[in-house]
């Protein structure tokens, strides 16, 4: 328990202490903060006010709390994150041994603890490379059935390696950023010959429910990361929505994969939940009977982080429908396995690199992670509260993804990642 | 002509003035420089010594010449690059009107003009996103024939849009960086069922001869760049070798494209040749009879930059064979068309983004841009000087790509991009 009043349903309990980057009307420069209950604790102000006086080790590095992103903090490594999180939990605890640092320091409390409703969140990390995996086996299977039928739904490599591709880093945006309906090349009639595309606005705009993970440690180019050391490279996690224009994707995707269909924007939640905060949420993922090559064999079989996930679709007139409920345990590969595979050919990772899990779907129709799956390619409309229907996203639709682990009173949550579809602009 | 002695065969004539980032034994901090003949002109020293005294406009921005990359310089835009290049040409010209700035200023000349043999080159730009196109139609066709036969060599979208995928930015390295033979998953017998890969070192390591282009201007997310304005986003060009492990690539590439097979390293030449320096090298690319959608229609049909290109393979014992001669006019799409397509769905570009052209092959067997094509998938060995043969690259092999435009005495060249294959390390 904290001496601050924290609602038992808050995602940002004392068990969490997620990190983000904020600014305020009074000071518009982005700087690191943590979320606690309904507050953000401004770490730049906290550090300047002597908040870290109780730890010589942390004090040495307080410059990282004046940076405009979390990259420098992340690069200091897992043991440093652990020390800072532990320190801040101790300062905020009801039985804190250092009440003079914040609880009883009215001046610093008023300056550093800002209601979250009054802060603006920024992208927490400067994203180096963004890699999107495809580890949601149920999603991969469902989409495979749609495009290739049941017998060839999964490609031959799928159970042997964590399939992935490079995404676009520049268009990763923080929750709340509007998403513009894109223009692009679309093949309206897939059966006509010759195949001639048109230039049009996407009609099949979709969400993708994913988890994101930020890297905090560098490996040397040419040096793969052993899978059982890979957890040391995990800074923390976010919710991720990889917006996808299915009609653009279908036409452009051969032979090198998706490109303009995904470049339009990728949204992440504002607060990075540290790896340590989710240690208790680990368990088995989707079983895989395929014998794995040694570099993917983990000592622990309980290495997949399980987050409860929900997706709301809110129409322009405010009607809200929860269109999916699932859990991130529905992944075939753990984050350490993804890191091991990413680096097996020598690729160097850097603090700030973002991994996406791939779309996460459960086993039944209420737990699908994208509309393409839910509507079986647009064939069966989703029925929404208020009577509207959807086969894909319409202008003005807002998608909200929530995620959390743990129990009331000690929730370790992400808050949400939210984005609203804006109508396409006229072209030139 | 310059008052400096510049060999008529130098790639770095007064007509060029390419920009790079260098350090020296005496000062190991990376800083911007230009190449002129056998010298690098250290722009940080030049600026500090009053070298830009002749231009108030440039003097305002000299801080960019103390940065460790060219990104800040690039972000100042085409007209600023033009002003700086023009100014430096005037200062270096035999008939310079300001001999006191450098020619007759012995102290500054000795401090700022460093023999290139004594400088270390660094990556010229901090690479934001790296996008690799596939605009070498002859290459795409030849590879398509190998894998799908003549009738389906090019995919239906190929003539309608510049096919591209996202590459890995972190493993882009400057010329001279060794490349480690990678480990990865390989399907040794493609016909056996079930398909079971092994973990092994790549046996089919290849080069890819490409041009690279750096972006200097940002567009807002959601706002496509009109094709006839896109040249304003081009900072300059480099030679690029997109090292590729074909055996890793074949197994992993469905359905999302190449990943570990390309992550092992991408080499670029050290000096960025500015867009203005290659204006006269533009001409028609590969003809395309396909009616293009409006956003890809350029006013000028002579918009493809033509660079003479040569590839040398040097064995460990020093035998050198020129294995390919071609020209970058063998591209189906111009750089402005690639920019227009990249941004059509709203993707934001940023200064420092790197585009690769895709592998460039001419029309005959002496002009192929990768070994996969030259050996028809490893079937016909390349015969090298000294009697050795190659179906793919061996440990100790060095690949050197050279490129230039213009005539002796006024060459606009890139120097070279070079890399040597190091043997694989034991795994863990």
UniProtKB/TrEMBL annotation, chains A, B:
Active-site residue numbers: 139 (proton acceptor)
InterPro entries named among the record's database cross-references: Fumarylacetoacetase, Fumarylacetoacetase-like_C, Fumarylacetoacetase_C_sf, Fumarylacetoacetase_N, Fumarylacetoacetase_N_sf
Pathway: Amino-acid degradation; L-phenylalanine degradation; acetoacetate and fumarate from L-phenylalanine: step 6/6
GO biological process assignments: homogentisate catabolic process; L-phenylalanine catabolic process; L-tyrosine catabolic process
Database matches in SUPFAM superfamilies: FAH, Fumarylacetoacetate hydrolase, FAH, N-terminal domain
Cofactor(s) for this UniProt protein: Mg(2+); Ca(2+)
Domain Fumarylacetoacetase-like C-terminal positions: 132-421
Domain Fumarylacetoacetase N-terminal residues, every copy: 15-124
Enzyme class at the top of the EC tree: hydrolase
Binding residues for substrate: 134, 148, 249, 359
Protein name: Fumarylacetoacetase
Lineage of producing organism: Eukaryota, Fungi, Dikarya, Ascomycota, Pezizomycotina
